[in-house]
Every structure is written in structure tokens, then in C-alpha cells.
Amino acid sequence: MVALMTKSTTGAFFAQAAISFGVALVAVAAGIVFLPVSGWVRAFLALGLLYTVTSAFTLAKCVRDRQEDSALTNRVDQARLEKLLAEHDPYKEPAL
């Protein structure tokens, strides 16, 4: 039997990514609402937008990794079931 070693993201990293995305989104929204025409505020908005985009990619990676982990587990379970069904012979005499 081969042991499968998979790397998975921890719950804390997943939570950090989700919180980071939320904070970035709120920061950009606040920047848009209170946007005067000064250059410093526009720079703040650009920085917030950059942070939002990178946080979105991190969150998407976490979601994808979690989905791949569950898909791999389901495939392994399906392969084990198919092996058991292939080896089962209903007409074989039980051993006494």
C-alpha cells in the first residue's frame, strides 16, 4: 500500500487569506468613497487595489488547493472500492 503525502493549507492560512481579502476590499471601498482629487489619496487607492488583487489570488489558490485535496481523496476512495469489487467473487465457496 502506498501512503499518499499531500500538502494542504491549514485552516489558519485559509482564514488569513479570507480576512486579508475582506480588509483589502473594505480599504478600497473606503478609498473610493472618500476620494478627494489629491495625489496622495489616489496613491492610497492604487496601493489598496494592488493589495486586493494579490489577496484575491491568494484566496483563489487556497480554495483551489482545498478542492484538489478533496478530489484526490475521493479518487483514492473510488479506486479502493473498484479494486474490492473486482476481487470479489460471489460464487466462491467460503473458507471454513
TrEMBL record:
| Residue ranges of every copy of the YiaAB two helix domain listed in the record | 13-65
Q: Which GO terms describe its biological process?
A: DNA damage response
Question: Which keywords belong to this entry?
Answer: Membrane, Transmembrane, Transmembrane helix
- Which InterPro entries does the record match to this protein? YiaA-like, YiaAB
Membrane-spanning segments: 12-34, 40-60
Highest taxon of the lineage? Bacteria
Give Gene Ontology CC terms: plasma membrane
Q: What is this protein called?
A: YiaAB two helix domain-containing protein
Natural source organism: Amycolatopsis sacchari
